[in-house]
Specification:
Length: 156
């Protein structure tokens, strides 16, 4: 189960106990915000794409939407989201629990600038009923991100 691999990943940093598990689903931004009693924009959603046959994860604020023009400028390719089957096979997490932690080899992680307006955010932890509160520096540290990018629109 993917949450177990995320727990093992965070165990090496003595952060496993920070993972929150809910009795309700947190599979969407709205459901996660309800479960966490926070604003939807503070949910750090992880979007999965295929760029030149390579899996790419973009962690963005809950209220942000991918801007196709910005995406194409950044990656020189059209935004093509992975199918649910591809996400699990290529990334290692099922849709609803996709996160940048404990992912498979060859997955590149980017953080979108839409997250930079918050002190802490809540990414999922490999299941459809989990999350962890991280500061932006912690998100940088634990996500193994490649860099900050600006590929979203529609956020405040």
């Amino acid at each position: 189960m993917a949450i177990e691999s995320v727990k093992a990943y965070f165990r090496q940093y003595d952060m496993e106990e920070k993972i929150l598990e809910f009795d309700v689903s947190s599979a969407t931004v709205e459901l996660a915000a309800e479960a966490l009693h926070c604003e939807p924009q503070r949910i750090a959603k992880t979007l999965s794409f295929l760029v030149a046959e390579h899996p790419v994860l973009i962690v963005a604020a809950g209220d942000a939407k991918v801007d196709n023009h910005k995406f194409k400028e950044q990656f020189a390719a059209k935004a093509k989201m992975l199918s649910p089957e591809q996400v699990e096979a290529l990334v290692g997490h099922a849709v609803g629990g996709v996160c940048p932690f404990a992912v498979k080899e060859g997955v590149t992680v980017y953080l979108d600038v839409s997250l930079q307006r918050f002190e802490t955010v809540f990414p999922a932890c490999g299941s459809s009923n989990s999350a962890i509160e991280l500061t932006i520096p912690q998100l940088e540290q634990y996500s193994g991100y490649t860099g900050w990018i600006d590929v979203c629109k529609g956020y405040l």
